[in-house]
Amino acid sequence: MARGTKKRHPPDDRADAGPAEAEARCWLCGRLLGRRIEWHHPVPKVKGGRLTRPVHPICHRAIHANFSNGELQRTGDDAAALQAAPAMASFLRWIADKPCDFHAPTRRRRV
C-alpha cells in the first residue's frame, strides 16, 4: 500500500464482521458510521497489534492526536479507557450530535 493512502475495505482480521454493515457503529464514539470508514489498530502495528476496529476519520485523528503509541498499547482494545481521558471526553461530548460524515480539523497534541 502506498504511503498516505487509507484503507477503504476492512482487512481479513477485523473484529466486527457482522452482516448489518448499514448499522455499523464507530468503535470510539458509538455513532453510526458514514460513507468514509477508517480502520484503527487499538494496539498499534509497531507494537504488535493486528486487530482493527471501524472508526470515523475524525475519531481516528482524535485518537492519534491525544495518545502516543505507548499509551495505546497499554490501553489495548479498551475503548472505555480512551473515552475516560479528559481531552477525549471533551471531544466525544462535542462530536455526539454531529452527522456521521462530519469532518473538522483536529488539533494536534500539546507537548
The helix/strand series, from N terminus to C terminus, equals EEHHHH
Q: What percent of residues are in strands?
A: 5-15%
* Unreliable stretches: 1-5, 12-19
Gross geometry: globular
Mean pLDDT: 83
The rounded Rg comes to 13 Å
**Strand element count:** 2
C-alpha termini separation: 31 Å
| Main β-sheet description | 2 strands, antiparallel
> Major sheet: order of its strands?
1-2
What structural category do the secondary elements indicate? mainly alpha
Number of helices: 4
Features:
about 30% helix; single chain; mainly alpha; two-stranded antiparallel sheet; about 110 residues; disordered N terminus
Topology:
Layout: E1 38-40, E2 53-55, H1 57-66, H2 69-75, H3 79-84, H4 86-95
Antiparallel strand pairs: 1-2
How would you describe this protein?
A two-stranded antiparallel ribbon has the order 1-2. It has 111 residues and is mainly alpha-helical. The protein has 4 helices and 2 strands. The protein has helices spanning 57-66, 69-75, 79-84, 86-95, and strands at residues 38-40, 53-55. The model is unreliable at 1-5 and 12-19 (pLDDT under 50). It has a domain at 22-95. The protein starts with 37 loop residues before the first strand and ends in a 16-residue tail after the last helix. The protein is globular, with a radius of gyration of 13 Å. The longest helix has 10 residues, at 57-66.
Question: What's this entry about, in short?
Answer:
With 111 residues, the protein is mainly alpha-helical.
